[in-house]
Structures are given as C-alpha cells and as structure tokens.
Amino acid sequence: MANQTPVQIAWVTRDMDATEQALSALLGARRWVRMPGVHFGPDSCRFRGRPADFVADVALSYAGDTQLEIIAPVRGESLYTEFLERCGPGLHHVCREATDPADFDAAVRDAERHGATVVADGVMPGGMRFAYVTAEDAGVPYIEIACLTDDIRTFFDYVKQEQQP
Fold it and tell me: What is the mean pLDDT of residues 124-134?
C-alpha cells in the first residue's frame, strides 16, 4: 500500500511571486525552483473524466523533508482553474507517494472504495503518474496520489539540495 504520509503540500495561486515570498517567510523555504509552462496534454491527462489540455507554472521548494509546491494556472480548464474560481488562491492539496505502478493503482482503487472520487488523473511530463482524489462531502478537498519515476525523483533531490545553506 502507498505511503499514506503526506510528502508534499501544494498551493494554487494567481501570483507566484507573492506566494513564494509568503511561504519562504512562514515555512523557511530558501530557494524556489520554477518550471514555467508545464503542459498537461489531452493524450495524457483527464479532468472530471474528460481529456484535459492545460498549462501551469509550477515552483518547488522544501521545508525540511516536506516538499512545497506552488501552481499558477496559465491557460486551459483544469483542477487548478476550477479551484481558483471556487475558492480563490490557497492551500490546494497534500500528496502521498505510491512506491510503484501497482501500488499506485491499488491506492487509487482503495480511495474509491472508501468513497473518494477521482477528479483528475494522468501522466505528467517526465512520466510521473498522478491522481487527485476528493471526499468533498467530508471536507477533504484534494489528496494527490503520485508515482514518481527515477528521473523525477532525481529532480526532486536536486530541488531539496538547493535548500542547503
């Protein structure tokens, strides 16, 4: 079974600079690594059961061992634009990691068996599989389940090392 301990906390914003500054001050992130224009294409991503085609700017940092992620939608309909429209900028999701593809599939099935709904899923550039599940009626907006590739894990290690003084 997937590690159920959150490994990432993510915010959605319209103002990446302001959110980076606030989280740096409040959580001690030293440096943000930005990935502008990350494209989620309709061949590899779904939102509310339909193919999704959107672009988002993403920034990553760390507070201790917890990864911090900031997402700023650029274009296209997505889970992130929907969140901004419904709630405004703010805390969006926590992420837990699946150890391998079979574990990922089992974690998603288990979440659905426990009443959660898959809102968005797919494969990110770099091969990372993801699924956002929600139990909105219970007050749980989004939990992301992610299955990292070795390349993505190496990149995350680089981001974490950037936090060293």
Answer: 92
Distance CA 127, CA 58 (A): 16
Rounded-to-integer distance, Cα 86 and Cα 89, Å = 9
- Chain centroid to Cα 13, Å, comes to 13
Give pLDDT tens digits for 91-105. Answer: 999 999 998 999 999
Q: What does DSSP say about strands 50-51 and 45-47: parallel, antiparallel, or unpaired?
A: antiparallel
Spatial contact of 130 and 162, defined as CB atoms under 8 Å apart: no
Collapsed DSSP state (helix, strand, coil) of residue 100:
coil
Closest CA to 38 of 75, 82, 89: 75
By DSSP bridging, strand 8-12 and strand 66-75 are parallel
Average pLDDT, the chain: 92
- Burial class of residue 151 (count of CB atoms within 10 Å of its CB; 0-12, 13-18, 19+): exposed
158: burial class by Cβ within 10 Å (0-12, 13-18, 19+)? exposed
pLDDT for 1 equals 47
**Structure-token match 């709630």, residue found:** 87
Give the pLDDT of residue 3: 57
